[in-house]
């Protein structure tokens, strides 16, 4: 399904062997109107590497105000957000309750003739609840033992003409906002979930990066272009993970989503295994080359279908299927960054990650030395190796990893979009965490406007559109706006998660868990609650203590807690709190609406049974 909105070309390079387009049908409520267009070779003369039989110029379709308009009525497609004081950061995304309807009186279907014999096995891998499918993958083994791997990204820029009303609203929003219970989309839902989304067994316009790779992930050839794909199935991360974990077993058909008749379960399974194998090599090499990863725990919820209230939660598990997709998205983003920067050295929209704040980082290194944890922070790769070495390999290694990750996240700066023409020193272009010279965002244009800009630059670089007529300072202003919106979006997502977890504690608490101490003050200490991945501060004056005292051993802070005995004949219980101490905590709701606190359990008290501690809370 597609709508062609501008006087432009759909270009299918001859070597991709996909197909050409000969007619467009407009479906209305009352009739089907068909008009065939002849291929027009004359405008293509002089364009390098483009063969006329593979191209079609489609005139712009006429749009009435009724078909495309901005209104000030309350959004019926999900843009309306309830007025929650905790979500005031969301207001930039719903100013004036602006609603966009996009061609809501009809859809446009691409009818394909002269289909070439080639039919790639292309599929998507996304969260099971995803409705906006930005990216698809393909992988096939070649006769020489190498692989052809394709990353296909929804061609949103084709549907969002530059300077249009839709473009202006999308640029203002700059990002979709992902709340626990809903998504506030950057684009109208008809685009997000239907026209642009790479839904299975429908023809979709895409921007593709296709490589010839060795089994070790070395790039032998690289190609960029506009294509049309038909995804054969919509896999979830769970589906892909099952395929990875069961490489020799046939996955039962009933456990998988529908697969188009042209392809088989075995074909998809083998493609996933091949992608996984290459992704492992790409990932290994990235960290050998000095990449750094500082992931923090992410809480996921199950919601009641009727009330929308949280029924349970678990820590989201980042598995091999997630890593598979991530590696190829990173590869595509880096490839496009180099392409647009080579072509437009003054007008490329890139993404840089500045090095960490030096003073904060050196103070943290000194503190870790005092804790007996020598850390090498000379580079991103050195820090990553030090962190990995320090985690240990016992059952609490993940907890120590999260505590250290949190500590070393604090000196880190935010990654930023920028215009290449605004920085003279190319060393400032570098992405610290990825440890690469050039990076951008290309793979999520449905939910990030920066990616739409990058798609337009890539289209111009490939000769599909005119050269960009924008000054570097104008592009930098748009980059700054994207940065602001991204940070605001991140903040409101965190608020949304905190709000829903507070509701869960109120409805299902008190909840008990082990926790690891991650910071010690003179009258309080911070803990990472291991079962839920949340961080809370525990205050000494809220505990049943006889006394407490704070001291530093070198730079190592310690709190000594003296608990009142339960029995007058017993001696007071002493407890020392320092970094990495394991403690038992109870999360309980406060009288203040939708707030909760953490209370330290007295040492020696019996732990609640797993059944009691997990009441209404699901394990991962």
Characterization of this structure:
With about 625 residues, this protein is an alpha+beta fold. It has 4 domains: about 1-65 and about 105-115, no CATH class; about 65-100 and about 120-345 and about 435-500, no CATH class; about 355-410, no CATH class; about 510-615, OB fold (Dihydrolipoamide Acetyltransferase, E2P) (Beta Barrel), CATH 2.40.50.140. Helices cover about 25% and strands about 25% of the residues. It has 12 helices and 27 strands. The strands form 9 sheets. The protein has a 6-stranded mixed β-sheet with strand order 14-13-10-9-8-15. The protein has a 5-stranded antiparallel β-sheet with strand order 22-21-20-26-27. A hairpin with a 5-residue loop joins strand 9 and strand 10. Helix 5 (about 265-290) crosses helix 6 (about 320-345). The radius of gyration is 27 Å and the shape is globular. About 35% of the residues are buried.
Fold topology:
Blueprint: E1 8-11, E2 20-27, E3 32-36, E4 55-58, E5 68-71, E6 99-102, E7 107-113, E8 122-126, E9 135-141, E10 147-154, H1 156-159, H2 165-173, E11 177-178, E12 183-184, H3 189-195, E13 203-213, E14 219-230, E15 233-236, H4 237-245, H5 265-288, E16 299-303, E17 310-315, H6 320-343, E18 349-352, H7 358-370, H8 380-390, H9 397-409, E19 416-419, H10 449-461, H11 472-508, E20 511-520, E21 524-529, E22 534-539, E23 545-553, E24 556-563, E25 573-577, E26 582-589, E27 596-600, H12 610-613
Structure summarized in a few sentences:
By secondary structure, the chain is an alpha+beta fold.
